[in-house]
Amino acid sequence: MKNTLLGAIGNTPLVELQNIVPPGSGRIVAKLESANPTGSMKDRMAKAAIERAEASRRLRPGGTVVEYTAGTTGISLAFVCAAKGYALEVVFSDAFSEEKLRTMQAFGARITIVPSDNKKITEGLIKAIINTAAEISLRPGHWYCDQLNNHHAIEGYLPLGEELWQQTGGQIDAFVHSVGTAHAIHGVTRSLRKHQDRIRIVAVEPAESAVLSGQLSGSHQIEGIGIGFIPPLWQPELVDEIQTVSSEEAKAMARRLAREEGIFAGTSSGANVVAALRVARRLGPGATVATIVVDSGLRYLSTDVYTGKPGA
């Protein structure tokens, strides 16, 4: 597998943030998941989910994969499907970036668009996308990935936690990550806690739709997280605390990461770093806080993350 493109997934670099961490804080290290083949950590999940479906014979040669997506999972599935020879039906929305749509199409995916209310990401929009994908999946020869309910998707993130442990030499005091399906935070947590059960696990969600924190569902603009309802496979017992980050905070941090650290990332990565800074400040010098740069900023150039507020 190492000599194939799918074998290039994982073993991404770990970097320490140099310029935005204030004096008196712990250090922050980040996995550059933008180094995966499609520029996203979701490559890990897509490969694991499809290989499990193949092994169980639910996905057969010449079959079609079906999925709902905010784009990042869709791109990764499109990449894996192209490499393995499957067709892909994706349900998407205009609430998410144009770059994601064009990338999925470039890999050969067929796209169904569910219109949004002025590009707002809401519970209603997410459920409409899911329902549309479920209808398409009933066609003969179609396998429904159904990421929110896919118990095997977490397997793709177990190596991510192991890589973090090895690359830090076991020096991790806290792990901070945003929640969409919750597979990534749970997978990394399972791996890390096999080594050290005292690592603090911090979940991140949009402040405007902080349902994990017990607040009302609302609209936000942090793509890929905050689905507006509790993810079906959410395991609150694995998480020590939840941090909320606003859309504007996440966007501003994405811009700062590019300008001050040279890390080109999207809004969920910005949210991760906002929360990681809070945790590092609280833990103080000597502590190590790990987080994830989820994907590349190339996917957000047409959005107001990089077109708006140039001085922010």
**What's the structural domain tally?**
2
Spans where pLDDT lies below 50 across 5 or more residues: none
The number of helical segments is 9
Judging by the overall fold, what is the CATH architecture of the largest domain?
3-Layer(aba) Sandwich
Secondary-structure element sequence? EEHEHEHEHEHEHEEHHEH
What fraction strand?
15-25%
Q: Residue-averaged pLDDT, rounded?
A: 95
Radius of gyration: 18 Å
- Biggest β-sheet description: 6 strands, mixed
Name of the top-level CATH class of the largest domain? Alpha Beta
- In helices, the fraction of residues equals 25-40%
Total beta-strand segments: 10
What is the CATH topology classification name of the largest domain? Rossmann fold
Class derived from helix and strand content: alpha/beta
Strand order of the largest sheet: 1-2-10-7-8-9
Overall shape: it is globular
Q: What distance separates the N and C termini?
A: 44 Å
General description of the model:
The protein has 312 residues and is of the alpha/beta class. It folds into 2 domains: 6-35 and 157-307, Rossmann fold; 42-148, Rossmann fold, CATH 3.40.50.1100. The protein has 9 helices and 10 strands. It has helices spanning 42-55, 72-84, 98-106, 123-136, 158-167, 183-195, 247-261, 267-283, 304-307; strands at residues 14-16, 27-32, 64-68, 87-93, 110-114, 142-144, 174-178, 200-206, 241-245, 288-293. The strands form 2 sheets. A 6-stranded mixed sheet has the order 1-2-10-7-8-9, sandwiched between helices. The chain is globular and about 60 Å long. The termini are far apart.
